[in-house]
Amino acid sequence: MLDLTFLYGERESGSTPHRYGQALKQPGAIPKGHQHAVARSAAERRPIVVWNITRTCNLSCVHCYTNSEAKAYPDELTTQEGKALLDNLADFKVPAVLFSGGEPTVRKDFFELAKYAVAKGLRLVLSTNGTQITPAFAERLKETGFTYVGISLDGLREVHDEFRRHPGCFDKAVDGIRNCLSIGQKVGLRLTLTKTTARDLDGIFELIEREKIPRVCFYHLVPSGRGTGVVDVTLDESRSVVARIMERARAWSKGERLVEVLTVDNPCDGPYLYLQLLREGRTERAAEVLKLLKWNGGALAGSGVGIADVDPNGNVHPDQFWMDVSFGNVRERPFSEIWTDVSNPLMAGLKDRRGRITGRCASCKFFDACGGGLRSRAAHALGDPWASDPACYITDDEIAGA
């Protein structure tokens, strides 16, 4: 996850310390409860745990990595099993638990599990399609103690409704954002970049401005599940889209209202940002950014290290896109034991991937800043978890001239 607001726009957010190891210069500007402790190193961090609390969904999105539909699925963790998982995550001191799905809000014990997580001291985040968030539901989210609600929008009305395969879901998602904003529940927009959704980028910028949305995460597509058949942007298009997002992030960083802008799931965005700073003649800032990127480690602190996934049936995965790989099940062993057990060669490799990654990534001069790209994308696209990330758009000349 790359914080463009801070790295490119030089404006801090509450997540700056967690991502880049720096204390805030203006801590009073960040709402209470949204600041993170400063870790001594990126490798020291516990994983953020994505828990797919159910596979059931009220939509049927074309890019769904869990192949979810509007039906019940068997053998999902019970309420008590979910609470046992949360107990262990709290004891393990993970920095956050992200409720995802399917669509997490359709689970009947959603608020029971959420309240239990907060009572255990866990920082709770929600990833949702937003269609369930009525004014009353938004009030309950805030009362429960969700620190952040991420609502997915994949373009403007026609594009989003077609992408999510449900007419009217765009308007419901926007209403969900408005309902959160109206009561002071921290909320943001999530968008997966594809050839189709990227066309609505300017409209999304306008929507963020018009609705006064404080945060947006642009996710690079990781083709998995039903998303395997989605048409991704080309490398040149990806580079162009990131440039446009960076430009808007910098413009917002100079405004009165803070808009936190992040890109996710393509670690080469970091080196590209560094190179762009050099092209602009901001050499001092470029040097600072490169140092921060190396502290963070990019993908080195990603799948299998700083991000984890627990699926609806309790299986533990390196990340939410790698559902075909499981390290164990929380019904049989606590998450903390599974996560720290390196007897599995892939888990051991993810925690110490230097020397294992091959191709361009292995010889890249930006390896320490990028971390060798997204391993789940390489595994899905090329059948080799140690191959170069096929979504890297940094050119050979840029690598050679670094």
Report a brief summary of the structure:
By secondary structure, the protein is an alpha/beta fold. The chain has 17 helices and ten strands. It is globular, with a radius of gyration of 20 Å.
Run of helices and strands = EHHEHEHEHEHHEHEHEHHEEHHHHHH
Total E-strand runs: 10
Strand order of the largest sheet: 1-8-7-6-5-4-3-2-9-10
- CA gyration radius, whole angstroms: 20 Å
Helix amount: 25-40%
SS element count, helices? 17
Q: How can the largest sheet be summarized?
A: 10 strands, mixed
The low-pLDDT segments are 26-38
Strand content: 5-15%
Shape by Cα distribution: globular
Structural class: alpha/beta
End-to-end C-alpha gap: 22 Å
The pLDDT mean sits at 90
List keywords for this structure.
402 residues, alpha/beta, 10-stranded mixed beta sheet, 17 helices, 10 strands, globular
